[in-house]
Amino acid sequence: MVRARSEERRADILRASLEVIAERGYRGATLGSVAERVGLTQQGLLHYFPTKEALLVAVLEERDRWDTSGARDPEGWRLDLLESLVEYNAMRPGIVQTFSALLGESVTEGHPAREFFTERYAHVRANMARVLRLEFGERLPGGLTPERAAPLLTAVMDGLQYQWLLDPAAVDMPSAFRDFLRLLQGADRS
């Protein structure tokens, strides 16, 4: 019972952290503001997460678990599942905003999420290459290898998120991603 309550409290803290980071960015988010949102003191929050950096990494790991339970198991992913992920993200602007804000901030030297995102993107590119290989074999219709096309596929997914966050009325993220998939597949496969 105590363990279940502790896990529930950790989940509440992670959700509140996502909200605070989405509103203020990582640098503007404070442990005090997260603690206040979940009805704890800052000292009480430190019982669950000893540093702001530990909390940030837990938030990012939890977000990945929510989104892509199969992402680290690329055998389960296909292009149509990536399309479903884009559609799912379009229903969760707060989560996408938090992820995008942290990703943007992480490119600075010394940012606590830099290592997380560097490792994450290495895994994502490898997984995207596997997805593309399963769909197309060793060459895509345009002649690229899956390894050469994987960073492009990843860039389109993340770039669409930024454009959609900035102007959701002008950018239909799921439709744009479907259009990109048609480009990948070549005119003869549409």
Question: Which labels suit this protein?
Answer:
single chain; 190 residues; mainly alpha; 0% strand
Ends: how far apart? 54 Å
The largest pleated sheet is described as: none
H/E element order: HHHHHHHHH
Q: What's the β-strand tally?
A: 0
- The total of helices stands at 9
Summed up, what is this model?
The chain is mainly alpha-helical and 190 residues long. The protein is 73% helix and 0% strand.
Question: How would you explain this protein's 3D organization?
Answer:
The chain is an all-alpha fold. It is 73% helix and 0% strand. The protein has nine helices and no strands. The radius of gyration is 19 Å and the shape is elongated. The termini are far apart. The model has no long low-confidence stretch (mean pLDDT 87).
